Amino acid sequence: MSGGRAHAGHMVRRIGVFAFFSVVLAFFSLPMLWLATAPFDANPSITVSVPEFTLANFRAILDNPYALGSLGNSVLQAGGAALVVVTLAATAAYALSRVRVPGRDALLYVLLLLSSIVTGTAAMVPIFELATRLNLIDTHLGVILTVSGGLLPAAIFILKDFMDATPTSYEESARVFGAGPVQILLHVAVPLVRPGLATIAVWAVANVWGGFLLQFILIRDPQRAPGSVVLYTLYTEGGQPDLSLLSAFSLLYSLPVVLMYLFVSTRYGFRFHGGIKR
Amino acid sequence: MTSDPSGLGRGGAAALVLPALVLIGVFLVFPALWTIYLGLTDYRLTGLAAADPQVVGPANYLDALGDERFLGSTWLSVQYVLGSAVIGQACLGFAIAWLVRDRRGPLRRVVEGVVLLSWILPGSVVAYLWIALLDRDGGTLNALLNTPGAAWLLDHPMLSLVVFNTWRGTAFSMMLYAAALESVPPSHLETARLAGASAFQQLRDVVLPRIRGHVLTNLLLISLWTFNDFTPFLITAGGPEGASETLPVYVYIVALRDGELGVGAAVSFLILAVNLVFALVYLRLLRARGRDADVPAPARAATRTAA
């Protein structure tokens, strides 16, 4: 008797778990279905439907004056920010790791604290003001410098961990053979922390590629606007959005970050990277 | 200097640290401080007060604290944080992590995959996906529920945003809890089960005490991020008539669209103060636990700048 009850309870539990997974799958995939069907539909509508297959929607991207250029702008801004963050964080982290500076740990903590509280939301007013006075409105440089300022503390923090974990004996031998500090940094320290540098670069690119608020505030000229901002104008400006263009462009603009995540997860066994995001 | 294997010396070290510090100083520290000053002025984007702003003292702060629109926005932000982060993301994330914990097959990969995908897609893409899903006339949700003409974003804007952000952010909690649950020895659960503990008792007595640090970390971080989230602007732009105007949207509309920079800066400062409380509690937590394995590495978890 009791064996039968336990068995029935087990079945109910299994069915319950199965139902839960079905609901979770439906909830999470439902909003994304449109992104999978509409770009390939000859007559895309706002409703998800089985597409009448075509690739013509992607031609609409070429016809739009800003769409393709905005992806180029995203590449410039994301690449520029990654370059600035990786370079400055690597040099700073190296120095902080190798030379004892009084108050170093406290400084790092304060900067990390600041970078997590001074968000785009909290600082949009002064950042807009600052960029206006420095003539950085409508420039790629403005976006790159602003974003980098926010990403650097965490980048330094992470890279310092990497630097601390590398043995200093290589550097000591390099010195014996007469290498200068710059040579040691470039040829000894940097190659040892290459995985750390890659992590920071991917993280910075993902941040800038998906970022909206700062770019939206700093860039008014559609010629300079990145993908996130141009996409937003496609569905907010000028009445009924052109769904062929909107769907195809959404997919094309999403693809690089998705591919980057797939690459990182297959290459490095992506499990928990709380940091790699926005 | 014995502790200087690189041969940099203090001067060399300073030269290497300086560029990063300058950038951080100008684009992170200075804006934070300037917010406080701007909040004390009647600065405007255009007009007379733009050319010659006057210091008006704490008037902006006092006005904001007594302003119904500001108080309303604060209440909406509280709903957004409690509803979508604390209840939505944390609970759903834990439920998924708990139920997939000892599965290794394709089901786990597919579930984790879709949850992660909703997290990594760019914000302006997911905003439109939800606008399309919830559209009054052609939205997929109305087609599925057979409720043509239900205007979700107009009639239930906050509920829509809460559900949206639960969808958007559950991945972080799921991953954090999945990592945390790996620290719970299966033998302890087995012992509790054999002793006749129900699933709820196992969770309360065996699991929770071991992952308490993770739970707190998770709640603090997702609350901080949700509080600062600007995506509601892309979906509802604060409408209809301010019914979904959370604080970040309020600041944008008041300061940058309507040009009242002084008032916007005062509200920004209040947001900054709330963020500071969250972050200080988080850092205290980390420090109290030191390098204990129960709390995830600070640099990894703390690094997310809202965009």
UniProtKB/TrEMBL annotation, chain A:
UniProt xrefs under Gene3D superfamilies: MetI-like
Localisation: Cell membrane
Start and end residues of each ABC transmembrane type-1 domain: 71-264
Protein name, UniProt field: Multiple sugar transport system permease protein
Keywords: Cell membrane, Membrane, Sugar transport, Transmembrane, Transmembrane helix, Transport
InterPro entries assigned to the protein according to its UniProt record, in alphabetical order: BP-dep_ABC_trans_perm (IPR050901), MetI-like (IPR000515), MetI-like_sf (IPR035906)
Membrane topology according to the record: Multi-pass membrane protein
TrEMBL record, chain B:
Keywords: Cell membrane, Membrane, Sugar transport, Transmembrane, Transmembrane helix, Transport
Listed InterPro entries: MetI-like, MetI-like_sf
Keyword Calcium: no
Pfam families: BPD_transp_1
Major site of localization recorded for this protein: membrane
Compartments where found: Cell membrane
ABC transmembrane type-1 domain: residues covered: 75-282
Cellular component terms (Gene Ontology): plasma membrane
Membrane-crossing segments per the record: 12-37, 80-101, 113-133, 261-283
Record-stated family: Belongs to the binding-protein-dependent transport system permease family.
Protein name, as recorded: Multiple sugar transport system permease protein
Gene source species: Thermocatellispora tengchongensis
